[in-house]
Predict the 3D structure of the following.
Amino acid sequence: MGEALQRRLKQERFESPAFEAMLNVMVAADHLHQKADDVCLKFKLTFAQYNVLRILRGSAQGGLPFEEIRFRMLDRSADLDAILAKLEGDRWLDRDAPQINPQLSVARITPRGLRLIEEMEPAIATLQEYMASCLSRRDLRELSRECECIYGHDPSCGAGSDSE
């Protein structure tokens, strides 16, 4: 294992299997993120902007406050203020503007934004098709389970039961 990672990082050895696995997850996530950005750029959006529109599409008619959007984002380090400003400027969403604290504003996807998300669905589906072309259904489920073990830190995931 690790040949693709070794070539990608131009590194022959890794200090531990845990470090190698961590790097593999990060490189794979970056690879998928870049593919998602490439798809979204065809619609003049970044993947983070698309993610915000998807979040708002799934919210109730009343929209969502800033902090709730941030909590649901895939990339919480993204500049949400800039994302909301851009999407609002392009009329994909609207938001109220409270005088005291702008982070208390509520954003709502517009009908124009809903049409954009619908138009993007076939292109976004290519990302799922890409994943399905790389891994079997069983492997996809296992990958999801293992990722949830990492970020959910579920004690029932078998940490410490090293069979190698």
User: Anything to note?
Assistant: The domain at 3-7+17-152 is CATH 1.10.10.10 (Arc Repressor Mutant, subunit A). The radius of gyration is 19 Å. The first helix runs from residue 3 to 9.
